[in-house]
C-alpha cells in the first residue's frame, strides 16, 4: 500500500469533525481557528519502539498511549484538547497493525473531542510523533513556574503501578496473576487527567504531568518556581495491587522514580486549598496532598515524621545510567 492510500484508508476518516477545523488532512497545511481571547497550548511527544514501548506491544495500546501522553501535557497546562498532528514511521505497511493502532488512537480522540488534522507517514524504524494543541482562555494557563513557598503539593490518582508493570514485563518483578491485568492497563492505557487540569487552572499555582517519575518531575517544577519541597512518604497514594506485590518500601521507590504514571503533580496556596479540594471531589477526581513547598531549594523526604534520605531521580534520555 502506498503512502497516500494509507493516509486515505486509515487516517482521513475519523469520528471527530470539529467546527473550528476549516481545512484538515489532505493539503500542505491544516487551517484552524482559536476564537477570540484564547491562547493555543502546543506540545510534541515522540514514542520510539524499544525505548517507550516494546516493539511487539499491542498496536491498539500504542495508538492510545501515543495520544494520551500528549493530552497529559495539555492537562498539566489546563488546556482543552482540540487538534493533533501525527507523524508515524513504519517499517512496512501491516494493514491489521495500522487498523488496530488507529482504533486505539481514535477511541481516545473521540472521547476528548480531538480531531486529527494532518501529519506525515514515512518508512523506517517504528516511531510515532504526536503534536497536540489545546485552547486556553487568555492568561489562564498553568505552568511549572508559578509555585510559591508555603504552597501545598498534591498529586492525582495513584503512583508506581505502571513502573511495576514494566518491571513485570522485563522479568524483574513477580506479580500475582489476579493483579497483572490491572497493572498492565496503567502502563499501556494511561488516562490523561484532562478534567482535573480544567478545574486546576482556576485554583492551582503550578502543575506538571508525571511522565519521568515524581522526584524528577518535581525537581523541574521546583527549579522553575525557585522553591524547595518536602514529600511525606507515608502519604504517597499507593494502590492495593502495588503494595500486595512488592511491599511498602519498594512501592514508595517505584512511586518516586518509576515514571509512566501520567498523573498531575500540582501546587495550591493555603487560600485556594479548600476550594480546589471541593471542586476536584465534586468532579470525582482522586487526589492526595503529599507535602509542602519551602525556601530550601532542595528536595527532602520524611517518613513517619523522620527525615529520610532517598536516592531517587526520574528517567532522563541520554543519561549515563
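-> sequence recovered:
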Amino acid at each position: 500500500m502506498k503512502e497516500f492510500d494509507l493516509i486515505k484508508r486509515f487516517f482521513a476518516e475519523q469520528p471527530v469533525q470539529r467546527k473550528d477545523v476549516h481545512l484538515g488532512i489532505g493539503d500542505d497545511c491544516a487551517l484552524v481557528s482559536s476564537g477570540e481571547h484564547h491562547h493555543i497550548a502546543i506540545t510534541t511527544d515522540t514514542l520510539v519502539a524499544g525505548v517507550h514501548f516494546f516493539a511487539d506491544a499491542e498496536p491498539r495500546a500504542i495508538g492510545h498511549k501515543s495520544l494520551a501522553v500528549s493530552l497529559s501535557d495539555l492537562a498539566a497546562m489546563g488546556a482543552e484538547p482540540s487538534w493533533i498532528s501525527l507523524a508515524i514511521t513504519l517499517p512496512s505497511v501491516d494493514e491489521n497493525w495500522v487498523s488496530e493502532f488507529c482504533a486505539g488512537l481514535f477511541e481516545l480522540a473521540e472521547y476528548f473531542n480531538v480531531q486529527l488534522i494532518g501529519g506525515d507517514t514515512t518508512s523506517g524504524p517504528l516511531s510515532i510523533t504526536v503534536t497536540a494543541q489545546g485552547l486556553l482562555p487568555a492568561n489562564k494557563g498553568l505552568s511549572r513556574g508559578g509555585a510559591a513557598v508555603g504552597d501545598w503539593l498534591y498529586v492525582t490518582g495513584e503512583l508506581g503501578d505502571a513502573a511495576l508493570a514494566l518491571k513485570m514485563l522485563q522479568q524483574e518483578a513477580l506479580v500475582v496473576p489476579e493483579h497483572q491485568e490491572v497493572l498492565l492497563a496503567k502502563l499501556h492505557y494511561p488516562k490523561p487527567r484532562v478534567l482535573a487540569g480544567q478545574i486546576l487552572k482556576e485554583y492551582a499555582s503550578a502543575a506538571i504531568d508525571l511522565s519521568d517519575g515524581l522526584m524528577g518531575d518535581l525537581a523541574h517544577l521546583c527549579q522553575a518556581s525557585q522553591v524547595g519541597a518536602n514529600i511525606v512518604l507515608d502519604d504517597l497514594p499507593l494502590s492495593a495491587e502495588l503494595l500486595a506485590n512488592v511491599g511498602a518500601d519498594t512501592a514508595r521507590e517505584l512511586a518516586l522514580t518509576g515514571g509512566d504514571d501520567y498523573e498531575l503533580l500540582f501546587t495550591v496556596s493555603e487560600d485556594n486549598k479548600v476550594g480546589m479540594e471541593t471542586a476536584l471531589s465534586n468532579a470525582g477526581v482522586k487526589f492526595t496532598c503529599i507535602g509542602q513547598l519551602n525556601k530550601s531549594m532542595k528536595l527532602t523526604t520524611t517518613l513517619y515524621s523522620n527525615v529520610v534520605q532517598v536516592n531517587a531521580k526520574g528517567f532522563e534520555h541520554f543519561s549515563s545510567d
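The mean pLDDT is 91.
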